Amino acid sequence: MNKHLYNILKVVIICCITLIQAGILLAQDSSDEFYTLARAAGERGKYTQALEYCERGLKKSPLDMDLQEYLGKCYMEIGQLDKARIILLDVLKKSPKRVDARHYLINIETQTKRYYSAVCYVNELLEITPYSKTLWLKKINLYNLMDNKIEANRSAKRLYQIFPNDNDVKSIYNQYLREDALKLTRERDLFRASNQYEKIIELESNDPDIYLNLINTYLKLGNYVEALTIADIGLQKLPNSNALFDKKIGILEEQNEYQKAIDLLQAKLRKGESPQYRRALNYLTTRAAEYYKNTDPYVLYGKVYAQNPGNQDAYNFLVNTAITRGYTQDAEELLKKGLKSNPNSKILLTKLLTVYEIQKDWEKIGNIVNKLYTLYPNDTDIKESYYAWSYQKAKLDFSEQNYKEALWGFLKVSQSPEYKRYANQYIFNIHAQRGNYDDALNTINGMIKAYPQESQYVLNKVDLLMNMGESEEAYNLAKSYQKEYPNSPEYAQMAKDAAVGFIKYLNNNQDFARVKTVADELIASDPNNIQAYNYAVGARVAMKNYNEALDLLQKTIVLYPSSKDLKLKLAGIYAQTDKHEEAAGILKDLRIKYPYNDTLKNSLVEELMLYAKSTDDKKEFDKSKRLYGEVISLEKKSQDAAIKLSNIYLDENKADSAMLVVDNSLNNNPDYPDLLFQKSVIYEKMGDYKQAREYQARFVAPINKPKQHLERLDELEGKSLDNQVNISYLRAHTDSAMFNTSVASLEYLRATKNKMNTYVARVNYAARNNGVGLQGEVDWYHSFKNKSNFLANVGVANQFFPSFKAAFSFYQPFAKVWQAEIGARYARLPNNDNFITGIVGLERQFNNVWLNGKLHVMSDGNKLYNNILAQSRFYMKNEKNYIMTMASVGNAPEDPRLDFQVKTFLSYVNTMVGAGYFHYINNKTSIGAIGNWYNYKTTPNSYLNQYNIYLTVRTKF
Questions:
Q1: What number of other Cβ atoms are within 10 A of residue 730's Cβ?
Q2: Rounded Cα distance, 483 and 197, in Å
Q3: For the residues of 338-358, what is the DSSP string, one character each?
Q4: Taking Cα atoms as reference points, which of 853, 848, 846 lies closest to residue 869?
């Protein structure tokens, strides 16, 4: 009893669970539908309607995060920002990885002026996509709205570091530097303002206003030397800037450097007269005269030094004053004079170094630094200067891609503990850039050993191994570090990148089994990595493990239901497994969702063509017609679909429909060769050979088939002719002379314009020793639109031939390559006997072979006779030239050409074999010959042989 209750309870529980799951699935399907409707309404700007769809969908599936997220967007769009915020925050609480929700919240917080919260959401998104220019720009704008210029400036600087070559970013960073410099100037923070102006000059060196602002800042700081230096730098960059020139003249005037100012003005005037600068020259000349009335110590010491060059005090004063005042040319000349007598003087060399540093002459600075270091290698200050200069020089060489000189410089400074770490980083980069992978590997291994906690070095090694083609080693290294540091996001990302690189390497080497293994490992470590799923599916497809690929892909689509690429891959697998209907169905659904995606449209067209080919192979031509029609509606220029569809119509004897398809395609593909050829074929099927030849002539034949093209033109020209004359001769020879005879024939054929009717008039002539026999005949061939046709014949004769004859045969094609015949003949023999023949025939057409069999049942009113005839034709060229063979057996011969001797061999068992050849001399004229051998059993023990030779010449006109 208890067991029975337990079983009942188990069944009830299972049923409940099944009903709940079915409800969830139904609700899910319903919620997906509402989500699609909501998105469609939102794209049309109808967010109130979209909101209603979302709310209805959430009643069905309250946990659908996509609907909740879009509901928040709808509230945002209609201005109910507080509601939108509450909903979106709830979405993020339940599904923290959502990106769109954060974008919506940024909008909401910006509109409600809660800029700090908006910045937080931007930062969260930047953790996901740290190199998104759009997000950085939003962050900068938010800081501006908060009036937090420091953070805005910092963010602009960071953005510029990420995108140094982006002109828009450079412009933004430049603008922030300008605003910050102006703000600092107003706040009297001149030192920081000068730093900002110098950064602006590095970015934009063609704006004279920046040089002027920096000069003014240095002047406010009282640093005339730097002000003058910046003026010189500006004039080197902008030699035609009058503003900078005027500023330099003003500085020199303030420093009482009248002579230098006068020299500059005179040089300027030598290039071209200027009233302004002429007045300035006169003014400065007057001021100089007034100034030099007073005693200048520099001038006095100059006179003393000139009179006594050995006066050390005068020399030292002049050198120090020249350096202080910025008389770099004077200082350089004095120091060089001093060094002539004392070339290794540390003091003089150090001062000369200062002069060159003011002049920013890097080459001369390098020479002095090297000389000082060579002379005084143990001097701490000199050593520091040497390493500092070498490091800066090496960085400059590196930036200019002068790697050889840069490497030498970094190797030198790597001996210094202060520069060792940074120098080794550059050394590693240089080796990697130059392809010296072994040296790069040794360098990075040393850095990892020296700084084991620095993750960047491990990342560099992994990248290096991948560049070296050692993808497997890179992958294993990345995996080992990820395993050792499972909580490190850097190593996790490194392992993913290494796995992808290794997979690409394995794909290139077609090692798909290992691709499968690595991709599966990547999925296991990162179940949301869609790229890993793509690789895993691709490997299974390459290995033709289609069932595994389908299972995995269908699971992946559950995770990413809106992924177009995954659905395309699913369609591809269906196509490769010949499930074209399923593949086409997926592509059609995607086409509805992405109506303007040309790549998707082309894929659908290609798949429909494959599907149609498969239905062609299965003889499902109604389905093929529908599929080719779909292709044409998608791609009106699809010539292949039009040609294949028209061929189906031709096989169905619907030439008009075939012509309509081809004409529509020609409207979209004027004069396309294959379509012109197809139209020629259709006209040929319709019997309009003149039009067929016209379109064949317009067809551009392939280069390798010019002869076939000309032959077809000739053939169509021949078919277009309506008149034909045939001349034939039959010679019959037997073992007995009494049966030897001949028959000659002349016939005229006339075809109607539509080739549906052909009329034949024929005269047969036989001459014997007892007279001449003539027979006149008329034939009528008629073809119906469904390809069935008949032959009617009547004839009269005076002697030898039947005095009257009539015949009718009806031919019915079926199954494309078969044709059946049923007919009857009547002949009134010369002895007035009536001879009737019934005919049943069947023929089969292969590519180049034609087979025919006929049964003849004959009666003369007294007895029945029979004959079985088999014939074949073997076409040799364009279905015109052919060899024919034949054989028959019966008790009466059956050959319309032997009507004149029907009575002769009745009741004799006979056999016949024969062969012939027909050859077209040109498109109008052909010749033919047939030989037959008849054997008649005249008595039980005796036989008679008859040999027939039939010759004919046929010509059209």
A1: 22
A2: 49
A3: HHHH-TT-HHHHHHHHHHHHH
A4: 853
Question: How far is 328 from 359, CA to CA, in rounded Å?
Answer: 7
Diameter of the chain measured on Cα atoms = 165
Q: Is 634 helix (H, G, I), strand (E, B) or coil?
A: helix
Say what the pLDDT of residue 22 is. Answer: 39
Averaged pLDDT score across all residues of the chain: 85
Q: Provide the residue type at 921 as one letter.
A: I
State the pLDDT at residue 3.
Answer: 52
Q: What average pLDDT does the segment 760-769 reach?
A: 91
**Residues in the chain, overall count:** 957
Q: How far is CA 632 from the centre of its chain?
A: 22
* Nearest CA among 628, 630, 632 for reference residue 667: 632
> Which among 299, 298, 323, 348 has a CA at the least distance from the CA of 228?
323
Choice among 88-92, 245-249, 303-307, 712-716 with the minimum mean pLDDT: 712-716
Give the chain's radius of gyration (CA, Å).
51
- Of the listed ranges 61-65, 159-163, 652-656, 925-929, the least confidently predicted one is 159-163
Phi, psi (rounded to 5 degrees) for 518: -65, -40
Q: Who's near 798: CB < 8 A, 6+ residues apart? A: 773, 774, 775
Express the helix, strand and coil content of the chain in percent, nearest 5 each. 60, 20, 20
Token pair, residue 88, equals 């979106």
What single letter denotes the amino acid at residue 440? A
pTM: 0.46
Question: What is the pLDDT, as a whole number, of residue 702?
Answer: 65
What pLDDT score does 680 carry?
A: 87
Q: How confident is the model at residue 29 (pLDDT cuts 50, 70, 90)?
A: very low
Cα separation, 277 vs 537, whole angstroms: 79
Phi, psi of 567, deg, nearest 5: -70, -35
Cα 531 from Cα 499, distance rounded (Å): 11
Where residue 28 falls among pLDDT bands split at 50, 70, 90? very low
Tell me, what DSSP letter sits at residue 798? S
Q: Give one DSSP letter per residue of 250-310, joined into a string.
A: HHHHHTT-HHHHHHHHHHHHHHS--HHHHHHHHHHHHHHHHHTTSPPHHHHHHHHHHH-TT
